[in-house]
Design goal:
The structure is a homodimer. Chain A has helices at about 1-10, 15-25, 80-85, 105-115, 115-140, 145-155, 160-165, 165-170, 175-190, and strands at about 30, 35-40, 45-55, 55-60, 65-75, 75-80, 90-95, 100-105. Chain A is α+β, with helices and mostly antiparallel strands. The longest helix of chain A has 26 residues, at about 115-140. At the A-B interface, strand 5, helix 3 and helix 5 of A face strand 5, helix 3 and helix 5 of B. The structure holds a DNA duplex.
DNA sequence: TTCATTTCTTAACTTAAGTGAACGAATTAT
DNA sequence: ATAATTCGTTCACTTAAGTTAAGAAATGAA
């Protein structure tokens, strides 16, 4: 199980035994039940997450309505904006499934970064890469219609459509659940002809 | 003029004289005319930009249509995704105004990062911060209507509405120029009542 | 197992964005 | 200075998303 984390890291930098042990000794692995809330809106937090197995989602509550903006699954990392800005969180994080993840806090990171420069390099590369990926996702979102976004998701993350409830998928696509339902039957109709 | 860059950097890390000189000696300052294309779709590039004065925009050409996805103005940094992924660029970058900026390439960065660990720290902090900011922008975009997005922009970046052509603003907001025009007059009508 | 709640779909209606076209205004090129 | 584009607005029409409501299906709790 821990090997998933180290396989992931090894794609970016190669760690010495000392460095690997330093990370293991931090004792960051957690197992959380479906439905668990990891972060509440209004709370302050210093915790970052890396999903080993399972799925977590981030959502806002606006006008009493849940707006899901992201899902994180196997091998995906999340540092909530509130950790960076040091202000109370604007959103919630909760577990969609029973999930195994790592939880690391920013104090820990400062310490290990100063001890092991290679770890700082890892963090830099990771956030640069995530920034570029997210930029492309944002651009695709802006330049396409809800229907195109859905078809795109079907291509790129078919697993999400299986494991995530429709109404959460809908707000992830920037529309209402009814619209997603309609859009799906529209696509089906087209496929028949 | 160079002080703008160092004022910016000093918000994140404090540089020694040696470190400052190392950056100055890279000779990264450029002055570019309005209309200049900095990067073409299909091209490979290793260049990152930091805007000192002026404005640059990124845009795609899809079905023969320009889709503007971002503007970078004073004190904003841009590393195109193609620099990270090492693949040909999906988009164009061009200057909306006469612009002064820095151009640094990734080979340079690798070198200076290994010489001055503090510089790597700067890069890490910057990309973590940008990642968080962009996440919030993306979330706001997803959870709001075109009209809300426009009003939001009016609050947060009123300068853009002045300096950027309407049709470029429109695709930045994810809509057509005609819709932006209509939406604006709708808002004006509401304001009268 | 049953009851309650949540989720998904469908439908009718409203609202707003997309489309194609026209026209004046502004900008750019010659 | 003049001609040629490009840009912004308006309009009529089309298409799709938002809204409200109702009912069926699935899920979870007692």
């Amino acid at each position: 199980m821990k090997s998933i984390l180290f396989d992931f890291i090894s794609k970016y930098v190669s760690l010495t035994e000392d460095e690997t042990n330093a990370i293991v000794s931090l004792d960051i692995f957690r197992s959380v039940k479906k439905g668990t809330t990891l972060l509440e809106a209004g709370q302050k937090s210093k915790d970052s997450y890396f999903v080993i197995k399972g799925c977590i989602r981030t959502y806002y509550v606006l006008d009493g309505e849940e707006k899901t903006t992201a899902f994180y699954t196997e091998m995906e990392a999340l540092t909530p904006p509130c950790v960076i800005s040091k202000t109370p969180s604007e959103y919630y994080i909760s577990c969609l499934e029973d999930t195994i993840l790592t939880v690391s806090n920013s104090d820990m990171e400062v310490e290990i970064n100063s001890k092991f420069p290679k770890f700082e390099t890892l963090c830099r590369i990771l956030s640069e890469e995530l920034l570029a990926k997210q930029r492309i996702d944002f651009d695709e979102f802006k330049t396409s219609s809800p229907e195109q976004r859905y078809l795109n998701l079907l291509q790129k993350r078919p697993d999400l459509i299986q494991r995530v409830p429709q109404h959460q998928l809908a707000s992830y696509l920037g529309i209402k659940p009814q619209s997603l339902s309609r859009l799906r039957s529209r696509i089906l109709e087209k496929g028949k002809e």
